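cron nightly-structures :: item 1 of 1
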Amino acid sequence: MTRLPDPSAVHDVPADRRWALGAIPWIDADETAPRTRVIIDNDFMGDPDDLFQLVHHLLSPSVEIPLIVSSHLHVDEPWDPTTEQAAHGVLVVRDILARMGITGADDRVVAGAETAMPDPATPLDTPAARAIIAEALRDDPRPLYYCAGGGLTDLASALLLEPAIADRMTLVWIGGSEHPGIGLVAPEVPPAEYNLTIDVPAAQAVFGDTAIPIWQVPRPAYRQAIVTAAELRTRVRPHGSVGAHLHAEIREVGRMLAGFGMNAGETYVMGDQPLVLLTALQTAFEPDPASSDHVTLPAPRIDAEGLYEPRPDGRPIRVYTAVDNRLTFADLEAKLAELAAWQADR
């Protein structure tokens, strides 16, 4: 589980090893410039795979990150059973920024709504929703991706409050169950997928009542983003204090599961990592996530249980069926190593 950090904790990053978000001081300034913008939206008090995605995006020079939204989980969620999940997630993000030595970025982090939408037509007018709208309306020719690794409350609210932003960004979402005939159905999984059920009305609104382009990474695709415990020990943990912290958070999940009588085995699904793969790691020419497979489907309706209903006239959406783990995790390891080497070189 993601542990709630102490807001007063001071991480020992020397002043000359701190850096402004987007600067990437260990590479030449002209080597890679941001060519896309990414709004990160995740439930940072939940499964710590979102910490890996956050760190990976923050270390990716091809993306500019103007906004990080901390979103809520389910009510009485075991990861964080409080009513302050989004606010707690802000503390988690700020702790990660401090551990990485990133300065001047706290104002880019905002807490989203603490509850789901009451119905698909009623937005929650929050500072997060307004910040999303402001960034989407900002005059910038670069593509804007909304990378969501949890529920869709804050995006749906923003789209309902200002429908004009729908054609100004693309949603990349980790969520949704198997589409009929596409992808393997894992044994004993619930019919409705976890992230979608965080806020079913929000998903109904985004899929059914807005025009935003969608790149969906449903359950059978994001479950492919698997790493082993040995890889985490040898390819993440050794890379400075950030790598050690990421590894420790995964170990904490194992301890939590053991307390419930569960054995996690020796693999872990890093289901949020495709958010980085599909946005930061696109090809140089004809930019696109060329190494991952997708099909184009009409956007389905989503019923009250979080399940799909066919809608042949739905707008076309991308549904990813396979993701490139080699590219994803090799890049993450290399970037963690670069950060650790630069921070140790003083």
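cron nightly-structures :: done
The mean pLDDT is 96.
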